Structures are given as structure tokens and as C-alpha cells.
Amino acid sequence: MDVNKINREFERIYNENYDYIYKFLTVKVYERESAEDILQNVFLTFYQRMCEKEGEKIRDPRHYILKMAKRAVAEHYRSPGKQSCDINEVEIVDEKALDILENDDGYTFEEIMSGLSEADDLTFRIFILHFKYGCTLRKTAKELDLSESTVKSKMYRALKRIRQRYKEGDVYESI
After folding, report:
1. How distant, in Å, are the alpha carbons of 28, 121, 123, 148, 167 from that of 32?
2. Residue 63, helix vs strand vs coil
3. 175 residues of the chain, pLDDT tens digit each
4. What is the distance between the alpha carbons of residues 155 and 157, in angstroms, rounded to a whole number?
5. CATH classification for the domain delimited by 95-167, as one of 3.40.50, 1.10.10, 1.20.1630, 2.40.30
6. What's this model's pTM, rounded to 2 decimal places?
7. Domain ranges of the chain
């Protein structure tokens, strides 16, 4: 298989599996940067494997990549002081909360996430699990081993800061 075909196949597999693997890593890895580094390394290793095997077909790419991600998370937590979180299946998406936020003040999901760029990792993880992956507040609290009131409090405080930030027009002020 030539390089162009390998690149197209990799791009297809990447697009189909990126969100799934990122969701897994968001819950398993506490630090946002570490989760993103692991995600990048997993897909890079997968691409290198495809090139080495000259495009040899992988029966179930999602399973293969998830297995690589699980190994990478295990390796990440082998160093002292690291703790992981458990994840089960994600519940139905809470579109209502996102719709209210987007329609009420005219914010897009991208604006909300950019407003969180300076937020602490825990607040970022709460937003990712709730808005992007559809975990209810109760499920988010359970996955992060927090009380539901803590999750609500952190989320609503961050939403208030985002509203203030965009109402004041200063999108560069940190949260």
C-alpha cells in the first residue's frame, strides 16, 4: 500500500476514533495536558505501526487503539503520586443544558471551551464530561469521585465567569 493510501486510511480511523479515545483519557487521566499528550502519542504510535506494516488491515482499529491507550494510561500511573478515575458507559447527552447556555447568551461550544482554557483541570474535566460526552451531573460526580454539589458549584461558577467574560467583551481575561 502506498503512503497516500496509508495516510487516507489513518485519517479515516483517526476521525472515527478521536472522540472515543479522548473521552476515555479525559476520565482516566487527571491532568488535561497529560491526557492530550497520551492521545497524541497513541495515535502517532498507531500511525507508525500502519507504516511499518505497509497498511496491513487491522481487524478492529478502535479496539486496537483503545488497548494502546489503556497501556499508556497504566504506564502514566506507574510513576509515584498518580491516581486514576474509573469510567463506565456514558449516559444520554444532556443537550438541554448546552442548548440553554448557547441560546440564552449566544455562546457556541467552542467559545465555552476557549473560556475554560485557563480553568483548573478539574473544572475542565467536568465540562468535557458533561457537555461534550453527555454525562449527567450525577454521573460526572461519580466518575470524578466528587459530590454532586461540588460538581454543580464548580460548573455554575465557571459558567458565571464565562458569561461575565463575554458580556464584558474581554475574551482575553482569564477565568
Report:
1. 10, 6, 10, 21, 27
2. helix
3. 688 888 899 999 999 999 999 988 988 887 888 899 999 999 999 998 888 887 677 888 999 999 999 989 888 877 655 444 433 333 334 445 545 554 554 556 566 666 777 778 888 888 888 777 778 888 888 888 888 888 888 888 887 777 777 665 544 444 4
4. 6
5. 1.10.10
6. 0.54
7. 3-77, 95-167
